[in-house]
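Subject: for your reference before the review

Hello V.,

The reviewers asked for a structural picture of the protein, and I figured it would be easier to keep everything in one thread rather than splitting it across files. Below is the amino acid sequence we used in the manuscript, unchanged from the supplementary table.
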Amino acid sequence: MKVKVSAPGKLMIMGEHAVVYNHPCLVTAVDKRLYVEAEILTQLKDEIITPQVKESRFVLEAIAYFKQRYNIKKHVKIATNGDFSHQVGLGSSSAVTVATFKALSLLFNLDLSEKEIFDMSYHVNLLIQGVGSGFDIAAATYGQTIYFLTGGKTIDILPVKELPLVVGYSGIKADTPYYIRKVAEDFKNKEREMKKIFSTIHQLVDRAKETFLADNLEEAGTLMTENHKLLQQLGVSTIRLDAMVLASIKAGAWGAKLSGAGGGDCMIALVSKEKRKDVEKAIIDVGGEIINIQVNADGVRVEK
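And here is what came back from the structure prediction:
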């Protein structure tokens, strides 16, 4: 028996870094997916085929944890491939972890809930990276657009009508654990100042949730830009990301910000249909690359 499943990548809309400190964020699943094929083997060891080496450790740890938890002695073959590179920062590690657990649960006839898959994937993520809030795992598991609180304490699927984002890639792969540690170090040294920034981000995220639900995209864009300014204060933006954000707003975007840990990877701009081409051109003109992505994608699912 062979099973094939997939899980989506993600884009952080608002709330990065603050979400590590028990504040909420908004995240959306994207239509770039990571695929896992799994089968039970008769041989004496597991076999893993991952074209992107970074993912292999997440797959290995997921298999080990799953076997230990459910007392499974059989060996498996796991093969992965994806619509996106881990270079782009769309959450390939989280997607491959979630998809691996889903595939294993099907192979061994365990009817695991989405929450169980989320919890196990979050455990593996913390085991490997030591840090993280789990928002990317929630996006991979549940899909759609989510209001999320650290560790999955709150996972609210939002019935967002429209989320017209332009995604610009900076050309630089961000080192997420480094930037999380950098913010953690600053938190130790400037706790009061950092708490104030995180509290303000929290307020922006809560307001943005309401504006997106009300389909008030112009106001949501303004809140996104405010969030970017706070991320600049945290020291996680870059000259290239700032240039792409500024160019988007000048070209008529409702708002724009970096998306993710910072230091590279992507930025996002919320735009009307009429301004989309102008904003895309503006991002390219300052050295960015447009990534064509649809949001509000399905969570982990079985593929035929």
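For the response letter, the relevant points are probably these. The first helix runs from residue 53 to 70. The first strand starts at residue 2 and ends at 14.

Happy to draft the paragraph if you're swamped.

O.
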